[in-house]
């Protein structure tokens, strides 16, 4: 949450909220980010999908809108299973694309899109998440080649790279990168400077990272120096 959201919710002063956040960060309860704070979840604990779907909605929608500007009709795309990827899918209904979704939720979102050629991978649907994982999903990806992989990792940091809470999810993300010519990562500021259990790839592996203004500016600059295009969605 941002400091301003907490001020409005509690009717406390800006100074009080910032002081309380600093105190809680010192106790390890949360992690301070620019302009607010995020929960300091253990690296092995995945927040429920329903909770993640309600977090940073405006930022995710802005990131999704920026992402679709980089898509070209006729392209083949593998679309990740995260909540931001679902926001991207909602904007693709009138696009002429071939899409392989790594989520049953996204597949349902695109099922009636008139110009979308929908390719379904095999695999096991994770309970609650409905993301597709396992050897059948990996085999489906390996049989194809895509123009673009659109990934929305669980966590992202310069040191830990792209990470996921689930081992199978990390394996599928890595395979999606391997079979795609270009890669785009969607990560709102709350995911930055955090790590989950399963490693996917280095932070500078993606060609493009789209985020929002709450992502640490110094880390955005460092990634740009490493040759990664970092775009801030407004």
From TrEMBL:
Stretches assigned to the HTH deoR-type domain: 1-39
Tagged with keyword Transcription regulation: yes
GO molecular function: DNA-binding transcription factor activity
Domain of life, source organism: Bacteria
Record's keyword terms, sorted: Repressor, Transcription, Transcription regulation
Pfam family for this entry, one: DeoRC
Function: Repressor of the lactose catabolism operon. Galactose-6-phosphate is the inducer.
PANTHER family to which the protein is assigned, alphabetical: GLYCEROL-3-PHOSPHATE REGULON REPRESSOR (PTHR30363:SF4), HTH-TYPE TRANSCRIPTIONAL REGULATOR SRLR-RELATED (PTHR30363)
Name by which UniProt lists this protein: Lactose phosphotransferase system repressor
Taxonomic classification: Bacteria, Bacillati, Actinomycetota, Actinomycetes, Propionibacteriales
């Amino acid at each position: 949450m941002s400091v301003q959201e907490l001020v409005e919710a509690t009717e406390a002063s800006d100074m009080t909220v910032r002081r309380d956040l600093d105190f809680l960060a010192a106790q390890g309860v949360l992690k301070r980010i620019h302009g607010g704070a995020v929960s300091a979840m253990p690296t092995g604990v995945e927040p429920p999908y329903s909770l993640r779907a309600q977090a940073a909605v405006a930022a995710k929608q802005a990131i999704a809108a920026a992402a679709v500007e980089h898509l070209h009709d006729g392209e083949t795309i593998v679309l990740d299973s995260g909540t931001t990827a679902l926001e991207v899918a909602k904007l693709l209904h009138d696009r002429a694309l071939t899409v392989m979704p790594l989520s049953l939720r996204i597949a349902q979102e695109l099922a009636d899109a008139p110009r979308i050629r929908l390719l379904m991978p095999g695999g096991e649907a994770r309970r609650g998440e409905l993301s597709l994982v396992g050897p059948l999903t990996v085999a489906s990806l390996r049989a194809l080649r895509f123009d673009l992989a659109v990934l929305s990792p669980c966590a992202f940091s310069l040191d830990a790279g792209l990470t996921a809470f689930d081992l199978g999810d990390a394996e599928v993300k890595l395979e999606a990168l391997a079979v795609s010519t270009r890669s785009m990562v969607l990560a709102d500021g709350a995911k930055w400077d955090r790590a989950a259990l399963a490693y996917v790839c280095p932070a500078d592996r993606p060609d493009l990272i789209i985020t929002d203004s709450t992502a640490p500016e110094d880390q955005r600059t460092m990634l740009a120096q490493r040759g990664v295009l970092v775009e801030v969605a407004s």
